[in-house]
Amino acid sequence: MTSRVTLFCEDRGHELLVRRLVERLARERSMALSLDTKSARGGAARALTELEGWQQGLRTGRLSGTPDLLVVVIDGNCMGHPAKQREIRALVDNAVFPRLVIGCPDPHVERWLIADASAFHRVVGVGCPRDPDKCERDRYKQLVGEAVAGSAVVLLTGVMELAPDLVDAMDLYVAGSCQPSLRAFVDDLNAGLTQLATKVAADTA
User: Fold this and answer.
1) What are phi and psi for residue 5, nearest 5 degrees?
2) pTM (global) more than 0.70
3) CA distance linking residue 17 with residue 126, whole number of Å
4) Among 46, 48, 143, 164, who pairs with 42 as Cys (CB 3.0-4.6 Å)?
5) pLDDT in tens, 58-103
């Protein structure tokens, strides 16, 4: 039995990372998933506005197709991932989406790319940038970009092209130990997938 997972992300870079992480965790559990993205363009405000509109359509019956698991990923933007999670959770109706996972890279998703230095070195072929632990706009994007510029890797659109390969290479325990916002997301995602697996087992018993 295939479970349906729907993603709401603020941009394509977030989607590349989150999609591969969901796929990896599902594969490790031998779970069959149907994974679709409802929003991954236009930033956080647009993603949340589209989520609210879709939620209202599902609530009223105007739309159909409620997923088994909803995954929302929006940057913490210096708010801190717990506070940002609470802000997003307040927008979601549990009656419509009973299984919800929220990821909030703190402060920005590019920081997750350097969460496992060994994985970064294996994928990019150069040393991993040192995390400055600062909340500055585009700081982590710049750090990764500068590291890649000294490597043989060619990027066509930006540093988030690295995300799928880095997710595959990561030791998630190490990465989560370095980045608490990533650890929280992986833990919550694992819990959500466990709930889906339990539901599938009950439905097929």
Assistant:
1) -120, 130
2) yes
3) 20
4) 46
5) 999 999 999 999 999 999 998 889 999 999 999 999 999 999 999 9
